[in-house]
């Protein structure tokens, strides 16, 4: 529904709205198309020219107005009425507007949609402008440039997520390779991290940072991964002009911003990293219009420091949001028990970038273990943390000059919470390294700071500093004096009203105030007539006649007004000075406060993970440099939580993909009926790896994980119609990425590869994918499939294990046990599941008959032919010329099929993989014959043996 937001103000309305009328010489219907541009429109066009890439909120009295294309864009985005105001170049000027007091809501919505907004304020009193002539325009200036990646306002930000601006630059290496520099800055907290990456990992790094806005030099605008992100993920992408990304000026810009003589203290930033950091600074300076946010020095985040999780895997595993974009239902939604916004943000950051160093992981796990072992300390700590407001964001607003009294109060309460936490830890015996360091940072805060703030701030605080009334009385003598004068004057007004009432013998006289008249006396019409006549007319001066009242003033009232307003103004000015003093005091401790804020977040995450581990029976994983992947009784945290709510148990399952000494890890081929729990099993093992390397306990009885450097998944079957890709195309693109990139240390989970196309195409692709994974990628992997034929691969590829999910029949109904065991599924139970889903009985019965026919005849035969034709070991073969009987194949064949078993084996009902082995057996038997050395009897026996082999393979 479209809402009408801005009725045109009534002509008689006094004050600010009148300025609109006097300024605007092009009111609707009055302008001559050929007339000159009105001064106001000329001013508007001037300001707009400097802010072409933003919607211009142009302040007119109590509204922000938008004109021309901006009006059309905003009206459509906000669902507000588009109207017209005068003409420009013979055309109507489209216009819409939002009231100032509700503008933040509209800003929020526009920013959420990826727009940038330039907020242009009136910077002088309209009365001042009028003094320059009736047609003069109020001076205006853009005071704020609001963009998705640079917002700091509490109500515009999600407390549980970082709000990152990401600058990307490219630097060509001497060898021709392009290296990308990435600088991620969260102005709302001051966090500033840089890293460098190659083209192959650019997208996964962007997915990890999950930026609210990306800025790039114009030359990079057409980079395919960026255009895709901007178009399909709707990430705001802002081009930077000038030399923003130039390596040459980068160092100078960083030094100037941080006031550094040299960049040595930042460690060795690469050329790409410093170019990106400088580009981010350039954009921040441009948008903050002179205000300097309290940014930390850029810290390097080596790409090899964290597990690489590509964008598709991140989305598929629903780590921080579901495929539909919601937090609820994601991993973080199910397991986040942090109690502070900063703790929540740190947890998201850690979960998005699992570590690669067993030592660093162990340090985090030590902190969690410490709190698991001390439940009462944990409870006490969490209670104190709950009282801690968002220190980092309040500090950032103060540093940008956008803070309010409540930000000072947040600082006060946050510092006190940090001190309380530090005091709690002073008594803790032998806290682990991570917590001891955090306690040190919390304790290092200047204790007098909170005391100063407590003494200065009133108990109840307004949102905006300009409202005043936030300084405690008794704190500042000068302020108290002004306030007394102001309040005294108000009492005098009340006394004056009483006196006039008495003198005129009426109770209907009121002393009122508005912006236009200031203080005035209002009486009903009949009373007013009296005041216009002697003797009253010598005292009362007529000001205005209303429909049913008249307004007057007196000399006494005018004098009083001057006294009152100057006392109020002076009190307010004094309060602003107190605010500035307090803000300066706080900012002098900026670095220490930031460290303490980070420390509180570290405490929060460790205690929250401990709470989770203790409450849900999670255990400490063992993480090292091996290629182990051994999980005992692992669970899926999100599915388990959902089942718990409906009172059902989750069945824990083991998983062992460990590589032996000097050997790559194993590949599990998982078959089982629909709805048995295959996808759950796949995902839970990937999530356990992520959680373990995040430094969390894991939902398993025991877990041993050798560092996973890259996590790949191909799960889910979402069409990606927005990108113009079919389900199958998406599946193949993601599978290709995995096969091209996965290595021995990777973990790969693949769900039903090949199901999106014709059966035999799909089966062939699935076969080839597993062979490639086994021979080339050599990664630890789980491959869930409905192609039971794939289980035959375990017979000839040494690192493949078959797993299946147990089900049982009960009175003809399928019962899922959700238990993963070694072996292959005997059948699919698809029809039973379809029956459970409520397919009509006639359809189920018909499907059963057809299945019996298909199983008996055609499909099996076709399958057998297909696999008999498949070139075996094409991936594993040392060279393309190696024949099927090459040494590796021979060895596997001999292990799997000793000659004595081949003769009497009935192969007729075996699957196609067995079939090819039987053919191989026949050929080997013929090759082994030496007719010249056989007696007639031996020749006869050999002939029978060959017949037998042939019969088995037919
Ligand atoms: N280990 C488990 N313990 C208890 N319930 C489970 C378990 N695993 C899965 N389930 C339940 O079974 C449902 C189906 O699981 P899942 O989607 O993993 O099956 P699937 O085998 O992948 O099915 P399909 O082949 O049809 O995709 C889950 O939503 C969950 O309710």
From TrEMBL:
Role according to the record: This protein is involved in the repair of mismatches in DNA. It is possible that it carries out the mismatch recognition step. This protein has a weak ATPase activity.
What name does the UniProt record give this protein? DNA mismatch repair protein MutS
Q: Which GO terms describe its molecular function?
A: ATP binding; ATP-dependent DNA damage sensor activity; damaged DNA binding; mismatched DNA binding
The scientific name of the source species is: Methylocapsa palsarum
Biased region (Basic and acidic residues) positions are 16-26
Q: Which family does it belong to?
A: Belongs to the DNA mismatch repair MutS family.
Which residue numbers delimit the DNA mismatch repair proteins mutS family domain? 746-762
Q: What lineage, starting at the top, does this entry show? A: Bacteria, Pseudomonadati, Pseudomonadota, Alphaproteobacteria, Hyphomicrobiales
Residue sites binding ATP per the record: 672-679
* A GO CC term attached to the entry: cytosol
Q: Which UniProt keywords apply?
A: ATP-binding, DNA damage, DNA repair, DNA-binding, Nucleotide-binding
Q: Name one GO biological process term.
A: mismatch repair
Xref: InterPro entries: DNA_mismatch_repair_MutS (IPR005748), DNA_mismatch_repair_MutS-lik_N (IPR007695), DNA_mismatch_repair_MutS/MSH (IPR017261), DNA_mismatch_repair_MutS_C (IPR000432), DNA_mismatch_repair_MutS_clamp (IPR007861), DNA_mismatch_repair_MutS_core (IPR007696), DNA_mismatch_repair_MutS_N (IPR016151), DNA_mismatch_repair_MutS_sf (IPR036187)
Key word Transcription regulation present in the record?
Answer: no
The record's region (Disordered) falls at 1-32
